[in-house]
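Chapter summary example.
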Amino acid sequence: MVRAAPAPVTAARPGGSRLVRVPSSHVAEGGSPPPAGDLEQALGAHRRELTGFCYRMLGSGAEAEDAVQETMVRAWRAIDRFEGRSSLRSWLYRIANNVCIDMMRSPQRRARPMEMGPSTPTAEVVLGDQRAEHAFVQPVADERVIVLDGDPAEVAAARESIRLAFVAALQHLPARQRSVLILCEVLRWQASEVAELLETSVASVNSALQRARATLAGLQGETLDPRLDPEHEALLARYVDAFERYDIPELVGLLRDDVVMSMPPWDVWLVGPDDLAAWFLGEGKVCEGGRLLPVDVNGTAGFGNYHRVGPGVWEPWAIQVIEVAGGQIVGHHNFLYPELFAEFGLPPRIEARADA
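The structure predicted for these 356 residues follows.
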C-alpha cells in the first residue's frame, strides 16, 4: 500500500537539476474493496488523480479522460476478481498504466512546435497545412488533474508537475521509464510499490528511474514565476489590458528578449519581441478587438482568447498559455482548438450587454 506520509521525493525537471514533486496530500489513499453499492463513488474518488497520471503519460487531456474512462470500465468488469492484496487505489493505477501503454503504441510521440524544427522569422512564415492534433502536447485545465484547494505551497508543487515543458519532456521517455518516473518522483511511491504495480523487481525500477533522470536532465526548461506572486498577477493584468486594447508597443514591453510564441496546430514558432510584434501587426492582426477570459492551465496562467465576429459578439479562438519568468513573459503559446473551451469551463461565446 502506498505510504500515508512518505518522505519528500523530487522529480527531474527538464533543463537542470531542479526537481518537481507532488505532496502526499494530493493523492488519496485507497482501501479494501467497497460494498457494491459504493463502488461507483469509490472509483470516482480517484478520478482526478488518475486523470493527472494519464495526462502526464499521454500529453493530452482528452486522451487522459479516455484512458480514465477505460480504466473505470475495466475496473467495473474485474471487481469480482479484486482480492484486496493491494489497495483499491494501487489496483486502479495498475489498470490505468496498462491502458496508457496500450494507447502509446503509436511510434509518434506528442511534442511542442519548438521540437519540430527551427524558429522562423515572421517575414518568412508560411503557415501551410495544419498538423494533426495528436502531434502536439495539448493543454489541460489545472482543476482536472490536481487539487487546487490545499496548502498553497503544495498546490504550487503540484502545478510544477504539469508544466507544458515537463509534460513534453516526459514524452521522450519509453513507456516503462515514464511510468516509473511519474510514480516514484512525481507521485512519490516507493520503488517496492512501483515494482509490485509493474510486476518487476526493485532493481529494475531503480535502473529505469536512473535512465529517465538522465534523459530529462538533457532537456531544456526553466523555473517559472509562482502564480501567487503579486508582481506576477500585476504583469498579467498589464498583459490583458495591452492585448485587449491591442497596444502592441505596450505588449512587447512585457516580453523577454528570448520570448517564444507557438501556435498549434501549426508547427511554426517565433522568437523575440520584434518577431512577435511583426506577427501581431501582420497575420496575427485577426486578434485585434479580442477578449481574454482567465483560466488555470498547465500550472500557470492562461486565457481563453475570443475573436470578435460581430458588433458586441466574440467567439472562441485559442487557449493561451502565458509563461512568466523573472517578471517577464517568456512563453506565449496559443492552442487554436476552439473545441477545448468547454473543457476549461469557458462560455461558447461572449456577448456585450446592450446597455453597456
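To summarize the output: The longest strand covers residues 313-325.
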